[in-house]
Amino acid sequence: MNLCGFEVGLEQPFFLICGPCAIETEKLAMETAAQLKDITSRLGIPFIYKSSFDKANRSSHNSARGVGLEAGLRILEQVKTEVGIPVLTDVHEDTPLDEVASVVDVLQTPAFLCRQTNFIQNVAQAGKPVNIKKGQFLAPWDMGNVVEKARAVGNQQIMVCERGYTFGYNNLVSDMRGLAIMRATGCPVVFDATHSVQLPGGQGSCSGGQREHVPVLARAAVAAGIAGLFIESHPDPANAMSDGPNSWPLDRLEELLKTLTALDQVVKAQKLLENSL
Amino acid sequence: MNLCGFEVGLEQPFFLICGPCAIETEKLAMETAAQLKDITSRLGIPFIYKSSFDKANRSSHNSARGVGLEAGLRILEQVKTEVGIPVLTDVHEDTPLDEVASVVDVLQTPAFLCRQTNFIQNVAQAGKPVNIKKGQFLAPWDMGNVVEKARAVGNQQIMVCERGYTFGYNNLVSDMRGLAIMRATGCPVVFDATHSVQLPGGQGSCSGGQREHVPVLARAAVAAGIAGLFIESHPDPANAMSDGPNSWPLDRLEELLKTLTALDQVVKAQKLLENSL
Amino acid sequence: MNLCGFEVGLEQPFFLICGPCAIETEKLAMETAAQLKDITSRLGIPFIYKSSFDKANRSSHNSARGVGLEAGLRILEQVKTEVGIPVLTDVHEDTPLDEVASVVDVLQTPAFLCRQTNFIQNVAQAGKPVNIKKGQFLAPWDMGNVVEKARAVGNQQIMVCERGYTFGYNNLVSDMRGLAIMRATGCPVVFDATHSVQLPGGQGSCSGGQREHVPVLARAAVAAGIAGLFIESHPDPANAMSDGPNSWPLDRLEELLKTLTALDQVVKAQKLLENSL
Amino acid sequence: MNLCGFEVGLEQPFFLICGPCAIETEKLAMETAAQLKDITSRLGIPFIYKSSFDKANRSSHNSARGVGLEAGLRILEQVKTEVGIPVLTDVHEDTPLDEVASVVDVLQTPAFLCRQTNFIQNVAQAGKPVNIKKGQFLAPWDMGNVVEKARAVGNQQIMVCERGYTFGYNNLVSDMRGLAIMRATGCPVVFDATHSVQLPGGQGSCSGGQREHVPVLARAAVAAGIAGLFIESHPDPANAMSDGPNSWPLDRLEELLKTLTALDQVVKAQKLLENSL
């Protein structure tokens, strides 16, 4: 599949979706985008900038939700044109999809909404590639039905993304088998190393997270074999507006990506044995 | 709390939300409504008729979705006025809420959408009592945050509903502890005995279900202590448009309710010990 | 099935297995046994006294393990003959089974050991009724194989006991469906309301527990329909040697049992609907 | 830690525990041992031969259990002396430990038995290195207590082994975070790629398995960072006496190990980022 000008798939190096969880300020967005562009260029990693204009499903209604649609899109457009990189954002049940699609290169749908037929089809119809996050309640083989819904409206640029599966209360587990199982959809499989280490609702009125497991799960997923990787990174995670506890420090990103790139090369240098048994 | 003219809570007999999963035809709706009114009148059970005009989150986009908004509301209105019973229906991310709220007595929000802040608040703002289904991925104590969102827009008539929790792949488990834990929200707690026995995605392109566990779980939940009970019932479950495998046969409903009513009386005849340790 | 002189099964009132988790002192054992005999006599509940001489699988090797085999059996014998009630104790991988079987009326096997073929068969061969606890990792339908192992050595007096199923880390869930599913073994099904509310390993070097959920789960299980109920009770749970956090206060037991007995009568007054669909 | 003459740990290449699940015949044992020695020598992988003389916890008592203690030990001794490789076998609740310890180089304890204090301490006291499999019901941080029990009797050569965690009914999940978490025990962490793809009880009277996920999980675990890897391999898995469905074909082992070795080198070439946050 061609995505934002680069080929993606299990025969290609993994592409990276990365950025701060939320668009906090224009300054933060522009600076992180530039830094991420530098890092990924040095490492030869195809890169898409990700940031959210609205956190629409926070644990508590008292939590900050972000800069909003208008300011958010303006900033993403600036990132796109001035830094010169493709941008992705997530859309919600009431987002004006055409407006967002007119700016961003890739749309992303939230895990909680993966079963809403109209929503998935409306997003797919906006004519942009879509990264569909798998619900925390959905078996990997059940993504086939979700992908079919999206393709049924004519969009063939669909990605599927694992972000952790419900594991008792206030915890998620990343089943690495699922990354292989979802290849059957024919879509590029993406692993979200950030939300997979979330502890949903784990801090009472907001979700906790375990940043220290990001490199563990990212290495595991790359070695399992994926087309793309999703990591949220922030220059100051302790003060991030959202998802700080599971955000990866920007100044530690390059060393993480170096290892991941080397692992990716090893895995993709030969055929995946699970496909030839 | 007063709901549709009857008092509900742990000091009152349980109220029943019941009907065929989907509004299939006017005839089916009117006939089942009349029968259900008869049965519940005989047993002294406060009753709200439930049926859906749109199945908005089916496993596959090839499955039937229902009669649609216009026909659905017309039929629900007919049930309400001609049979003389309150009616409930579920709304979705793109439902015209005011239109639905102008007809039905109670709105219900789907489990998958319980974390969508705007959606929950929009539904709560429609000014009707709301039955909020707990997500299959949400710990019982995390419903506190959800209820707060709904109350924040001024609606005090909120119910919380357990409908099974993610338990490995393609299965749900009903944690009876959760029914007691959710009392801390201050809301009437409802147990959905129908969707709790769903096997999500269990039949490939649609969900399976285990009807034989409906009485087991309903008895258990009533004995655990609940304000309300939700059961989908159909005169011919094998040919139901939706959720047939976990639908309860209408001709077996009265005997089920008799046992449940007797259990309810026993439990509510004395103080719940868990509250006085 | 006849057990210790009383008939047990879904057509009979539930029998109760109860006592302090561990045999702490002769005094505690004799006093609790006498009190429990009084309470259950008043309520007409067939009763078996339970207490352990050795806690063989504690979280940490620093925790107290009990009075040991010799003193334990002496005390159980005293309870049996002086109070005049049948007694049950649990045995472990290295327990001298014949010695224990010469004293107690019922043997119990620990959940962790339910898959050890030799152990299960050795216990079954000791010639006493056996209460086999289902592993925290075993599906209810998989108890069929376990029961077959026990019956294969000629023991037909086998009971199966639910005590909670692994649910994420450090938590258990009680699947009430399992109580109905295990009826297919042909064995009386027992629900252990004490260990089902354990939080395994939840306090670092020992397990935690949620005593407040004992009545909730006990009511639910009795209403689901069981042959027997297992509850550990202690006059001073806060100072119990073992399993204090999930032990039920002895002075609150009678009111709990009253409700449970009334629920049991309601459920068993008619046919279980799940059996006649 | 020094194990069988080679250093093991996160600064060393992973060591491999491998062999057919059960000792079926002397011929099979000698042939597979020789082949495995060849393969691992070529790849520079420290190797320990594994095979079981008794399958003591099979789903059904009708399943084959193996050649038994006497024949098993004779064959393992032959493998050890004639092929010249260290051997490991698993012991059970009633195994004569000294007899086994007089032959094998490493003892292994079954997952189901990880909480049996006496058993763990008896095995540790036999004076050989011990590979302790983590129970399918035990959180990774709770292995600390288990290791302490083993060390308390004076054995410092303890390994901890992940083999999948209970995930709903008849399924296991491998939480890669657990591999990092168990490093806190100070023990070499081993990943069992064979039993992690077991479907417990999944075929009615025996467990199923998903051999195709062995390479996926093995790659993921090696990339997460482990000291040792456990894989059962058989020249003819379809006809293996035990665990065939999750056994890896011997003729595909070398290509699998090549990839794993390359991944291992990448991961261990730099510091693990999770340790320096």
TrEMBL record, chains A, B, C, D:
InterPro entries: Aldolase_TIM, DAHP1/KDSA, KDO8P_synthase. One of its GO terms (biological process) is keto-3-deoxy-D-manno-octulosonic acid biosynthetic process. Residues 8-267 form the DAHP synthetase I/KDSA domain. GO terms for molecular function: 3-deoxy-8-phosphooctulonate synthase activity. Pfam families: DAHP_synth_1. Pathway: Bacterial outer membrane biogenesis; lipopolysaccharide biosynthesis; Carbohydrate biosynthesis; 3-deoxy-D-manno-octulosonate biosynthesis; 3-deoxy-D-manno-octulosonate from D-ribulose 5-phosphate: step 2/3. Coiled coil: none annotated. One of its GO terms (cellular component) is cytoplasm. Keywords: Cytoplasm, Lipopolysaccharide biosynthesis, Transferase. It is an enzyme of class 2 (transferase). The keyword Cytoplasm applies. It is found in: Cytoplasm. Its EC number is 2.5.1.55. It catalyses: D-arabinose 5-phosphate + phosphoenolpyruvate + H2O = 3-deoxy-alpha-D-manno-2-octulosonate-8-phosphate + phosphate. Belongs to the KdsA family. This is 2-dehydro-3-deoxyphosphooctonate aldolase. It comes from Thiothrix nivea (strain ATCC 35100 / DSM 5205 / JP2). The lineage of its organism: Bacteria, Pseudomonadati, Pseudomonadota, Gammaproteobacteria, Thiotrichales.
